[in-house]
Amino acid sequence: MATNYPGSLDSFDTIASDKKTSDSVGGRTHRQMHNDLGDAIEAIETELGTDPAGIYSTVKARLDALVAYAVKTSAYTATVADHTLNVTSGTFTLDLPAASTCTGQSLRVKNSGTGVVTLDGNSSETVEGVATFPLGPGSYVEITSTGSAWILTCGVADTGVRNINGGTWLNGWAAHGSTGQMIRRVGDLVEMQLDLNKASASADACYTIPSGFRPALPSVPVFVAPTATTAEPAQVLILAGEVSVARASLAGDVTYLRVMFTTRDAWPTSLPGSAV
Predict the structure, then answer these.
(1) Residue 67 included in any domain
(2) Residue 10 in domain
(3) CA distance linking residue 232 with residue 134, whole number of Å
């Protein structure tokens, strides 16, 4: 039997009622069986599509999307045909397709480079509840469309190590040196390092932790080892997102803080400081 498939959709002629169709098998006449066959072929071709290269509305295209892989190094707008995007370099925005066009579909993003890749939902659509979702080096995430937004369904979001030397210092405190102030969030775990000092000794709040990195608990006590200039250990408390140091010690003393804690903050919409 000649066929137009896969170049175009076949259209079978209906056998006219004046043809010899009296033969019957299993209750179906010869004519009915021919028409059944034509209807079945047309239905299958409609589902599979008639273009061997495939478009996303066909079964073939959907199967192809399950193994689709591409490398990205600059600004890009993802499509419903994308599945895994590997960012090997660059700092840029990765725009997402409208969630309503791909309900239930997932997109995997790996940041293999050293820059920051920011996921941005279509129009006002969010990613895990925030307008923009920056991914630092080492991040690998899977996001899934709910039909109106994107949610994180697998992987680990990572901000990468950020130098926060120019952060929000309070009450006369300042960074000690230019490279000792670091913060990083991996999933819900935050690592923070502060090297700080003050012109006069007192018990003061000294640093405001950026939004997206604040502790889940109302207060976090931290006990720090003695500093280089005094044998007295510092008593550090993280309260309401601020770091406070309590110690009656020499003016100009340096406090070295290393701490890890969990956060329930929404993912930061932008990353503080600069990449390390």
Answers:
(1) yes
(2) no
(3) 40
Burial of 207 (0-12, 13-18, 19+ CB in 10 A): buried
Shared domain for 73 and 147, answered yes or no, is yes
137 and 202 assigned to the same domain: no
Please name the amino acid found at residue 250.
L
| Boundary-marking domain end, from 116, 137, 156 | 156
Q: Does 90 share its domain with 118?
A: yes
Give which of 35, 44, 34 is closest to 9, Cα–Cα: 44
Digit-by-digit pLDDT tens for the chain (276 residues) are 566 666 677 776 666 666 665 566 556 777 777 788 888 888 787 777 776 555 566 776 777 767 789 999 999 999 988 999 999 999 999 999 999 998 999 999 999 999 999 999 999 999 999 999 999 999 999 999 999 999 999 999 999 999 998 778 888 788 887 778 999 999 999 999 988 877 665 667 888 999 999 999 888 877 665 555 555 556 778 888 888 877 545 456 677 788 899 999 999 999 999 998
Cβ burial, residue 22 (10 Å; 0-12/13-18/19+): exposed
pTM (2 d.p.): 0.76
Does the residue 54 lie in any domain?
Answer: no
Range of the domain at 232: 162-266
Number of domains present in the structure of the chain: 3
**Per the domain annotation, does 7 fall within a domain?**
no
CA distances (Å), origin 150, targets 31, 125, 153, 157, 188: 51, 8, 9, 14, 18
Would you call the peptide bond into 6 cis, given omega within 30 degrees of 0 as the criterion? yes
Lookup result for tokens 């098998």: 25
Q: What is the CATH number of the domain that holds 173?
A: 2.60.40.1830
